[in-house]
Design a protein that fits this description.
Layout (H helix, E strand, L loop, with lengths): L5 E6 L3 H13 L11 E7 L3 H6 L7 E2 L2 H6 L5 E4 L7 H10 L3 E4 L2 H18 L3 E2 L11 H5 L6 E8 L2 H13 L3 H10 L8 H4 L2 H15 L29 H9 L2 E11 L5 E11 L11 E9 L2 E8 L3 H16 L16
Parallel strand pairs: 1-2, 1-4, 2-3, 4-5, 5-6
Antiparallel strand pairs: 7-8, 7-10, 8-9, 10-11
Helix pairs in contact: 1-12, 4-5, 5-10, 7-8
The structure holds NADP nicotinamide-adenine-dinucleotide phosphate (NAP).
């Protein structure tokens, strides 16, 4: 017997949202799992309706009132792809409180409001999935919660921010200073006008907090993740990569090392979780050091599996839409939240 379609509303039609909408319109029937419900795209929320129409988005589905889609009883699933804290946070919380399923790629909201959102979803029985929030198209949260569920995770570390990886690679390849490369990256669109979220490490912190939720069963407070480099290593006591100099990179290279912004969470001897996002001089022939450009890589050390690694495209609309659409298919198959099967997270 065919199942009733899931009525999906997409909030935000930018780099990622556009790709998700395109796939739902062009490949909708192909996205249906044999044991899942089909999708029906019923609304798209944007800020600028004229721009969205000009971009070819279906005029009949567009609205500039995302809250109306969240409140609409004829919408079953909210796909939040707007980014930022508000109104995304309030919209996600309202959808979960109403028992609707939510897919989000918003690492800021998941990392900063994770405990409350998880509590709400568990209370109402709603589903919250966020695979796209870490590593773009790389499947890593799902495998942590499912295929690796029998393991005790010792550490998780990785390169999870493309902007800083691009800047550090360009500094190493061209021998240029941080300020020069950042300005060029901004001009080329690889870094934002306000780059602080990336270069000070906050974006990587958010992703590490989400990884730690699946790996260690706790929601870390983003403010507790160390982002200030040590005064005597690369980064000169400044946050993220903002203090990394051409001299730091040259010194590392002379010792066969490459400076990368490494996000790491590790189980300490007393059972607590130590977490940091720091510029780190890695052996240049290691897989992490060779992770370049838009690629991300996440390594998980666990017992009994040993070390496993996940690498692939960490950003980009098409790659990230893969994770969002995968979450939608999981919802259609009623597989539950990203943490399904794991115990509720320990409080912060
Ligand atoms: N881009 C990537 O490669 C990537 C990878 C992984 C995760 N993500 C995450 O995915 C999310 C979306 O990223 P993106 O790069 O697609 O962003 P984006 O290109 O800036 O697109 C954001 C979209 O949301 C809309 N929007 C923003 N605020 C709104 C509001 N208050 N009301 C209605 N619409 C609103 C914008 O509309 P207007 O254009 O009309 O302003 C735009 O359509 C973010 O959480 C990001 O961190 C992105």
């Amino acid at each position: 017997m065919s199942r009733a379609p899931l009525r999906v509303a997409v909030l935000g039609a930018g780099t990622v949202g556009r790709e998700v909408v395109r796939s739902l319109i062009e490949c909708g029937p192909d996205l249906v799992a044999a044991d899942g419900a089909p999708f029906e795209l019923v609304g798209i929320a944007v800020r600028d309706l004229g721009k969205a129409r000009a971009a070819g988005l279906p005029a009949g589905l567009l609205t500039d009132a995302p809250a109306h889609l969240v409140a609409d009883p004829d919408v079953d699933v909210i796909v939040e792809l707007m980014g930022g804290d508000e109104p995304a946070h309030t919209l996600i919380a309202a959808a979960l409180a109403a028992g609707k399923s939510v897919v989000s790629a918003n690492k800021h909201v998941i990392a900063h409001h994770g405990p409350d959102l998880e509590a709400t979803a568990r209370r109402t029985g709603a589903t919250l999935r966020f695979e796209a929030a870490v590593g773009g198209g790389i499947p890593v949260l799902g495998p942590l919660a499912t295929d690796l569920a029998a393991n005790r995770v010792i550490s998780i570390r990785g390169i999870v921010n493309g902007t800083t990886n691009y800047i550090l690679s360009a500094m190493a390849d061209e021998g240029r200073d941080y300020g020069d490369v950042l300005a060029a990256a901004q001009a080329a669109g690889y870094a934002e006008a306000d780059p602080s979220g990336d270069v000070e490490g906050h974006d990587a912190v958010n992703k590490l907090v989400i990884l730690a939720r699946l790996a260690f069963g706790i929601w870390l407070d983003p403010a507790d993740v160390v982002i200030t480099a040590s005064a005597d290593g690369p980064g000169a006591g400044r946050p993220g990569i903002t203090g990394v100099s051409a001299a730091d990179i040259a010194t590392a290279a002379a010792g066969g090392r490459t400076v990368k912004l490494v996000a790491e969470a590790r189980r300490a001897a007393d059972g607590s979780i130590e977490a940091s996002v720091l510029p780190t001089a890695l052996a240049s022939d290691s897989a992490l050091a060779r992770t370049a450009g838009v690629l991300n890589r996440i390594e998980v050390e666990a017992v009994p599996v040993g070390t496993v690694a996940f690498s692939g495209p960490g950003a980009g609309g098409a790659a990230t839409s893969s994770a969002v659409l995968g979450d939608l298919i999981a919802i259609s198959r009623e597989l539950g939240s990203t943490w399904a099967g794991l115990p509720p997270a320990a409080a912060r």
